[in-house]
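Colleagues,

For the teaching module next term, I've prepared a clean inverse folding example: a structure given as tokens, and then the sequence designed for it. I'd like students to try predicting residues themselves before seeing the answer, so please don't circulate the second half yet.
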């Protein structure tokens, strides 16, 4: 599939999750890069019309929807374009394994695991947005990347910040890193108000425009918990070397504190095109579309410790990291179910964390202890985490309707 007509410096790219928030920002970066990039594959779940538009705009060779029911719409929308269209999980995984220089892994949730692993095994560097890969099966993904000799380039703004300022030549020189959190829409809300929070409140992020699931994760701070786990695997740091600070302006994304007393930080306007461009152009730095940062206009940068009483998700994620790979896998799966249940108004906002905790407790009682050793293991564990979380949701919705009936 190597295109002989491309200039030798052109980077071949595949975008898994091209219709999402990260996928759209990546399209901006790629279009601004002109001939520097050539797009091989773009994928979506079922959003066929948007995928076809993206494929045409980027001049992709192939477009794949995971949902077979979306195939006719994709074929119709691509008619006459010469772009290959296919559908289904297997087709998506096969497309992810096409040889390219870099794959942007931006599918949301555990659905991103198999295609991302296929891209790694095919030898593509990975611009990793899908943090769930590292949370569900971190040791496995890091080992697979090492074995294939590919680079995991972090797209998450905090990890990309650390990636930019971390001097990896001497790991012992690093005392700790700091991941910043905006604090989300409920940073100043009381617990009483949070108990009444609606899905609309939770997805209204103050600084970032993101997909629904990660917006809810940001509001609970579970996103920051997932990021602590992600950082542990990406940078091989002990959990107590990874600190979280709330920084409401979202300008400083990550800091590295060195043992000699220097602290290096990376700053940018809150715009995901900045870390995406950093990954896609790496190791070069080239001009890319982005909101510019006027530090004088921002004027003040503030930092505070997270309130773990109102945001217990952070502690839950840290506990899971201490317990090991099975616990982070279940945490991720149970969170996906709990967030979906909240968005569907089956549970209240403050029940998201108890649902995850209940699923984790039940998994431990059922004897889960070992980290997943294969993708199959990771997916079986993930299924179990979802099943346990669904049970926890059902028992809570049952309680709600019984209370309502009284
Ligand atoms: P979105 O929900 O906006 O987009 C998700 C993408 O994944 C869409 O292309 C969607 O297709 C596709 N998708 C969803 N389900 C499936 C499935 N079962 N199989 C195949 N494809 C699927 O998510 P985001 O762009 O916000 O986030 C993507 C990833 O990046 C997440 O892991 C998130 O944690 C991470 N991330 C996001 C950031 C952000 O600013 N948004 C920041 C840092 C990390 P369709 O359109 O058809 O549904």
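(Answer key — instructors only)
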């Amino acid at each position: 599939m190597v295109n002989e007509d491309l200039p030798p410096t052109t980077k071949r790219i595949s975008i898994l999750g091209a219709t999402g928030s990260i996928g759209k920002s990546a399209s901006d970066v790629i279009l601004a890069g002109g001939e520097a990039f050539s797009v091989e594959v773009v994928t979506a779940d079922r959003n066929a019309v948007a995928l076809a538009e993206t494929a045409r705009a980027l001049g992709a060779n192939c477009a794949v929807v995971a949902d077979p029911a979306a195939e006719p719409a994709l074929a119709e929308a691509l008619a006459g374009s010469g772009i290959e269209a296919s559908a289904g999980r297997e087709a998506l995984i096969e497309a992810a394994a096409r040889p390219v220089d870099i794959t942007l892994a931006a599918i949301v949730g555990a659905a991103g695991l198999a295609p991302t692993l296929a891209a790694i095994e095919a030898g593509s560097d990975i611009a990793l947005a899908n943090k769930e890969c590292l949370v569900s099966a971190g040791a496995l993904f890091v080992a697979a990347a090492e074995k294939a000799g590919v680079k995991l380039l972090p797209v998450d703004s905090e990890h990309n910040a650390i990636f930019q300022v971390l001097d990896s030549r001497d790991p012992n020189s690093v005392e700790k890193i700091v991941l910043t959190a905006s604090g989300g829409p409920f940073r100043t809300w009381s617990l009483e108000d949070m108990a009444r929070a609606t899905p609309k409140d939770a997805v209204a992020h103050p600084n970032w425009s993101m997909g629904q699931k990660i917006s809810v994760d940001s509001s609970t701070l579970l996103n920051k918990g997932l990021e602590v786990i992600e950082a542990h695997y990406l940078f091989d740091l002990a959990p107590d070397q990874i600190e979280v600070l709330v920084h409401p302006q979202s300008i400083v994304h990550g800091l590295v504190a060195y043992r000699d007393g220097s602290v290096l930080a990376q700053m940018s306007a809150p715009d995901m095109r900045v870390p995406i461009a950093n990954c896609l152009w790496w190791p070069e730095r080239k001009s890319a579309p982005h909101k510019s940062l006027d530090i004088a206009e921002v004027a003040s940068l503030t930092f505070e410790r997270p309130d773990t009483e109102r945001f217990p998700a952070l502690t839950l994620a840290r506990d899971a990291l201490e317990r090991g790979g099975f616990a982070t896998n279940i945490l991720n799966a149970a969170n996906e179910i709990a967030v979906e249940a909240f968005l569907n108004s089956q549970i209240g906002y403050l029940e998201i964390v108890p649902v995850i905790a209940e699923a984790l407790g039940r998994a431990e009682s059922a004897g889960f202890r070992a980290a997943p050793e294969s993708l199959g293991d990771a997916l079986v564990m993930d299924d179990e985490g979802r099943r346990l979380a669904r049970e926890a949701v059902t028992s809570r919705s049952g309680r709600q309707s019984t209370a309502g009936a009284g």
